[in-house]
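Issue 218. Parser rejects a valid record. Input:
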Amino acid sequence: MSFVVITDTSGNLPTPLVRARDLKMIAFPYYIDGKEYTCLDTDSFDGDAFYKRIKAGLVVTTSQIPPQQYADFFTPWLEQGQDIVFVCMSSGISGSCNSARIAADMCRESFPERKIFVIDTRGASLGEGIIALLAADLRDKGVDTAAAAEKLENYVERMFNVFTVDDLMHLRRGGRLSNIAAIVGMVLNIKPLLKGNEEGKIVAFAKVRGRRKSIEQLAARYDKLVVDPESQIVGIAEAGCKEDAAYLAELLRRKNPPREILTVEYEPVTGCHVGPGALALFFMSKKGVRSEN
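Output the parser choked on:
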């Protein structure tokens, strides 16, 4: 094994897949009524109940992981003489990526012979999780740590993150929506299309009328921008809207069927920010796709 692949729970990967691919996972905390929780095991997470509670008014908050916690998590593998590739959530929506970089610098002082790379995916959910899976592929092929990090940075440039939500309130309240001027009231059944831009920030770039139309527009972006679908895993994440996720998967298979579609439920940390009814799509395109609409 050339290096250890570490990621965080916002990557939204199913627990059996995390175990099968030998990924190491650090958990983001979230808080309900002042009590701290984590979700390391997606199999035990009741998403339907969670999103129903949020829809009924439950307020969930989150916080970033501090540098020392990252450093403590990295240390055991460094002590074993292994390099680290850490695949993290977008720096455009969380300060945790910078915390991880600080931790990496701390660890390099103690383990100067080891290589530590922090990969800013500029995404979340499966926009991060699929990059972690690709990191595992490179590890399993015996690719050198530095060469693997370079390839992963290229994958980040090609990963398109696009989604729609039922209510922009959750993104706005959490400060996750960058172009506030693009916010429209959820009147006349107008639904926004959002994406992760070049900096990994969430921006609204289009508006469509109706939920079904918004789902079809996600599929339309896929058909327009996807590259080599037959060779890739395409990700779908949903927050309490499984039927919509199934419809989106059906649309993807019509014109440009991918090798595999991985459908997950948003875990609580990313899910509380996008809100109930969020539906997201993640796929590989050409380099520079983040500037596309």
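Fixed in the parser; the record now loads. The chain has two domains: 4-157, 158-291.
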